[in-house]
Amino acid sequence: MTENKYLFTSESVSEGHPDKVCDRISDMVVDSYLSKDPFSRVACETLTTTNKVVLAGEIRGPKIQKDEIINKVRECIKDIGYDQKGFSWKNANIETFLHEQSADIAMGVDSKNNKDEGAGDQGIMFGYACKETEDLMPAPIHFSHKILRLMAEDRKKGILKGIEPDSKSQVTMLYENNKPSKVVSVVISTQHSEDLNQEKVKEVITPYIKKSIPEKFIKDLDTNEVYINPTGQFIIGGPDGDTGLTGRKIIVDTYGGAAPHGGGAFSGKDPTKVDRSAAYAARYLAKNIVSAGVSERCLIQLAYAIGVSKPLSIFVKLAEGDENKIQDVKKIIDQNFNLTPRGIREMLKLNNPIYQITSAYGHFGRKPTNKGEFSWEKTDKTNLFK
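Above: the chain's sequence. Below: its structure in token form.
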């Protein structure tokens, strides 16, 4: 294929995927502490395997009893939908090893004279937006998420019967002149009950492709390029089938590979950690720039050093042909956005318990809620860039 004609693929995993179960639990811990003290510090990792959950990490904040955390872990597992022999909210063995944050780390990032505040770590963070979908997200990851999200909603309502929580999706699209033109293949693998055979699984799952992807993209989709549970049965799944860990699905969480990722995961981290908050800020900038009509695509990179408040660098990349606008965009960012850790948290109101909902189906391309969730998805700064 020529450079202007190529295939691109992105995948998503459901909230019942072992890694996403861990992300959900870790973000529950973040929300639990922030709900009691908005200035809590949390770095929580979770591991899951057959009927077992292990939490570990560093906390600085109010005292929360182990039993309260364990009960909330069970609530997460129950909400996801696990009550299986190999993994159940009722009798899973749950252990927590959360402990106090290192004094050395705290010293590096705490406010000085109630003014400056250093970044919680060094690192690079990326934000991206493009005009491929209404939510200004790359189309393959957007549709991959939507398939699984609609499946989960119907499963929980009792509409989609016999389908269990663990599932994955993958969408491959043909791009022509850097724009998505059609879907050429779809893969959906989903855990199911013993009562459903392969043909029945295909029958109940296939309609979600049409529900999730506009007709213009799938009207020529070859049915031979639709793969539903291609390995056959998928009965043993979730943490019983595969060990899960927090932070292993960073490309699923972001742009499906259509843009770089700095490397740091989001879930389990309070918003003083720039791995999370600066990635949200970078998306906020990129989305407002594209929404303002400055360019078809925008990539933002921010770089930080531990204990240093201001970003070491701000990189802006626009679509080909818009390079002459980059310096103006950077000037607007410099003059109007406080990208220190504290500035980002105040700008996006991140010191709130808003993170559990982010743990599955992507941190970006979601609708802002009246609870303050997904505040980085607002396009309230477009006038600055116009």
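The CA atoms of residues 29 and 69 lie 7 Å apart.
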